[in-house]
Amino acid sequence: MSHCPNDNLLIEVLQGTISSSDLQDLEPHLSHCKACQSRMETLSAQTETIKTVLNLDHETSHPQWETRIADRIAAAIAENSLKRTAKTEFLPAVAGYQIESIIAHGGMGIVYLAHQINADRKVALKMMLYGQQADVEEVQRFQIEAQAAAKLTHQYIVPVFDVGVSEDQHYFSMGYISGTSLKELLQNGPLPEREAAEMIRKISAAIAYAHEEGIVHRDLKPGNILVDHHGDPHVTDFGLAKQVNRDDQLTKTGQVIGTPSFMSPEQARGQVYEIGPLSDVYSIGALLYATLTGRPPFQSDNAVKTIMQVIEDPPVSPRVLNPQVSRDLETICLKCLEKNSASRYQSAEELKLELKRYLEGLPILARPVSAPVKLWRWCVRKPALAGMMVSVVASLLIGTAVSTYFAILATERAERADEGIRVALTSLETIIETVQMKLYQVPGASKIRRDLLKVTLKDLENITRAADYANRIDRNMANVFVDMGVLYHEYGDAGGGNASLKAKANMLRAVEIFEALSPGGSSTDQNILEDQARALRILADYLQNEHWIDEAHPHQREPAKALPYLIQGTKICRQLLRDDPDNQEIQFELARTIKGYSQAIDDLGERDKAFETIQEAIVLLETLKESKDARESFYNNLLSSYIAAGDAAHASKKNDVAYEQFQKALEVAEEYAIRFPVTATTHDNFSWCHERMAIHWRQLKNLPESLASFQKMQTSLEQALTLDPEDRMLKDGMAVAYDGLRCVYQLMGQNEDALEARKKRDEIEAWLAVSRE
Amino acid sequence: MQSGFYQRRIFMSDVSTSQTHVSLLLRIRENDRDPEAWNAFVNRYGRRIYEWCLNRKLQPADAEDVTQNVLIKLARQMGSFEYQSNLTFRGWLRRITENAITDFFRELRAEKRASEIQAELDQLDSAIAQADLTTRLCDEFDLEILDIAKQRVKQRIEPQRWKAWEQISIEQKSGQEVADELGMLVPTVYSSRYQVQKMIAAEVEKLQECSEQIFRLNS
Questions:
Q1: Who's near A79: CB < 8 A, 6+ residues apart?
Q2: Percent of chain A beyond pLDDT 70?
């Protein structure tokens, strides 16, 4: 090429999107043509922003700066920071106090050891970690609550002396207890039984007194019980625990909700209005449990799981953990820990008296829960909840989970950032899993599901993106992305965004992270490989199917793009099966990946190869289906595999083979209907089979058979729709059924019936169009 | 052709294995006792403060002193300044810088040590001087983001193409010169420049968005 190419072509050269043959043609010219070079120079010029930033360095850089100055300053700062606790320069000045040293750093503030000058006593001075722009309401509440706490005078309560503001910093001073905290004490294991009972009795007395004064503690936990040198407990941090307010969970990190292990179920559920004296009774019970067994009633590797245990699980009996615990103390403890507050001791006073009876060797009033009652309770705990009920529970859980997530992020951050992110990610994974699990429990109610997600999807997306900020290469992170992608894929984006793109972006990001963790599936960690295969399959599945999750942005099939992912996924699964040939999960993963591959090549026109390929998936799934713990999804995948095989055969005009496959699919649908409870899916399965049969007969010009099949398809869908009236996929199927009927009637010359079917079809289309908005 | 494009997306993806934080400011904010972060922080932001002092006629020893103190104040402000929903990250940076300077002068006056270098300090304690410093620090933040972006991009492209970009964009050589020196074709030099800078710009945008997000989350 001797003449100069136009700008568009030049830009393609610069972008690297030009084909290599075109580039070869152009290169000799471009390498020599000065005019083209200067055009490329202009076209590839720096964008303004980068240019400006690059220039900053040249413009302002001062030659006199030297690294040794930096070293000196850094060293001086490091030295200062070491002396920080000792040097007054770093201790705040509070009028009336002489601040001596730091006792502790907490989530809410710093506690200093100080000397109160006029009263001439040692005090602990707690300074709130607020900046100068603290929220007025929050400060007010802090003031009111601290003042209320200041009214309390009790032997076993740490006294609050003074509340005030110094240089915009809010503080209060309280009695200094020289000793340790119950938290530290319990690190050496449980306390002797009597000592534990005695300590909890004293705590109950303190709390009973506070309740009488109208103050609820709300955050009783071992860290808030100081133990002096005589072994006497002193309750601190009264009324300072703030509730987590759902509305501002995104702006205010619920820093103050520390461990949920000692929290009452009503607090864990975020039922702010139900938190009262009986919540404290619960927490005292949790303290008793911890002193007897050395561990809290509920604890797990992440706070979200703990919260769910607090809400749903019965505690393990203390005697299981420590056989030396007496039956009476166990009874007292479990009565405090009842989920339903009405079943607990009805006041801290009552609990105190009960413990007193125990300590004096008198019979206690509470009766142990007998075995049948336990069983009955367990049944009540897991009822088949009706739709709305589940959605309420689910949204509460999600709400608390999200706020807990932020709490973890905030508190762990202070300890070790890296660890914090890990914990937060595991929680996020649990949150998303829970959301999905709860959603599946919502019976036939895709609408409720969508409503639920409206509330949470945006929050989850925000957390996910924030968690991804550090570009962490982490299996948990990748799994979170896969799950987010699936959520968008299945439920759309109620927030109005482009769900299609969001689903894809999340899935792609997951695959990217796995690729970095395990390039080309080369990891030696089986867990990573399994998750990687899943991520690849889910992305491919997304790419090769058309869907209307987001009807404004329908996704067209992209089978060619899906292929490389499917090939890699297959490779990984086969490799895993070599080491672990009987692993059902991997077999299932492989079957699904192969099925996807077969469908992709079928779409690309390789019908025969597709038919051959899918046979392997069918064999795998038939085996899985026969296993004793076969799942619904084995059946569903087998059914769709037969249909895919039939479609491939059909496309290459092997009608008999196709018919055989559709018959097999029908058999699977029947087995499924017998084996599992009837849901919309049961009927929908039949509708797929009948649809294929109908098309088969129509192709063979057997109109009566075709008509019969379309009618069966329509009936199946009608039944499915009675169970799940709002499901768009079912409605869409119904439109297809009526359209099929219309077509066959027309071919048969039954014009009136055809017209009727067409009317029905149009009605559904109209419904679909209306409900889109 | 399409599948080829996709493969490139995964295998050439912008996944960096480093856990580099998006900015030293956020690192210090998260943990103000990380010595490594402090060294880097002093080298970048301290340098700016130092230059600012010198430009305002302070003696090097005093400049060093002021730099040290302002840095400490800055770190303290970062840890305690409350988030306001109407503030952007840059707005926040501006605000804490102003607070840090104010703090610094308040303390200095309290110590009554100020009179010795009063004239010079007056140079610093003016609205214009303070605006100048905040601008310098914001600029430094942009530069830092750019450096991180460059680092990330550099990790994932061929060294040759990176060099081409560096020489043509930073050393301001001509396309022909770079092509001769690196043994590349001229069009390749330009396409490297075009693509590298596009990647950097995308990375910068991502990092900026990230700092906003972390900032919001952690506030």
A1: none
A2: 72
Answer for the pair A467, A432: CB distance below 8 angstroms, yes or no: no
The conformational region for residue A185 under phi > 0 = left, psi -120 to 50 = alpha, else beta, is: alpha
Please judge whether A65 and B50 are an interchain contact, meaning their C-beta atoms are less than 8 angstroms apart. yes
Tell me the pLDDT band of A297, cut-offs 50, 70 and 90: very high
Question: In 3D, which of A320, A318, A294, A299 has the Cα closest to residue A310?
Answer: A299
* Cα of A137 vs its chain's centroid, Å: 31
Query: Pick from A105, A110, A112: which is nearest to A86 by CA?
Result: A112
- Encoded tokens for A85: 């606790």
Chain A residue with Cα closest to B184: A31
Instruction: Give the pLDDT mean for A368-378.
Output: 47
Q: Three-class SS string for A36-51?
A: HHHHHHHHCCCCHHHH
Structural tokens at position B141: 């933040």
Which CATH number does the domain A183-381 belong to among 2.40.50.100, 2.60.40.1120, 1.10.510.10, 1.10.10.10?
Answer: 1.10.510.10
**Mean predicted confidence (pLDDT) in A697-721:** 92
Q: Give the rounded distance of the alpha carbon of A546 from its chain centre.
A: 27
CA-based torsion, A397, A398, A403, A409: positive or negative: positive
Cβ pair B79, B29 in contact under 8 A: yes
B180 close to A (CB below 8 A)? no
Under an 8 A CB cutoff, do A516 and B13 touch? yes
The superfamily in CATH containing domain A92-176 is Phosphorylase Kinase; domain 1 (3.30.200.20)
**Residue that the structure tokens 């700016």 belong to:** B48
Q: % helix / strand / coil in chain B, to the nearest 5?
A: 80, 0, 20
Question: Are residues B38 and A74, on separate chains, in Cβ contact within 8 Å?
Answer: yes
Asked if residue A479 has pLDDT above 70, the reply is yes
Q: Which two tokens stand for residue A6?
A: 């136009």
User: How far is the alpha carbon of A650 from chain B, nearest alpha carbon, in Å?
Assistant: 27
Are the beta carbons of A515 and B10 separated by less than 8 Å? yes
Q: A269 near A400, Cβ under 8 Å?
A: yes
Domain residues of chain B, as ranges? 19-142, 156-219
State pLDDT tens for residues A279-294: 999 999 999 999 999 9
The pairs formed by B10-15 with CB atoms below 8 angstroms and a separation of 24 or more are B10/A508, B10/A511, B10/A512, B10/A515, B10/A564, B11/A515, B11/A519, B12/B156, B13/A512, B13/A515, B13/A516, B14/A512, B14/B152, B14/B156, B14/B199, B14/B203, B15/A471, B15/A473, B15/A512, B15/A513, B15/A515, B15/A516
Runs of H (alpha helix) within B22-84: 24-30, 35-41, 47-55, 60-80
Which residues in chain B touch residue A41, judged by CB atoms under 8 angstroms apart? 174-175, 190
Share in percent of chain A as helix, strand, coil (round to 5): 65, 5, 25
Closest partner CB to B43 (pick from A27, A70, A409): A70
CA distances to B41, B107, B121, B125 from B130, in Å: 20, 17, 12, 7
> Does ipTM top 0.85?
no
- Contact between B19 and A26 using a beta-carbon 8 Å cutoff: no
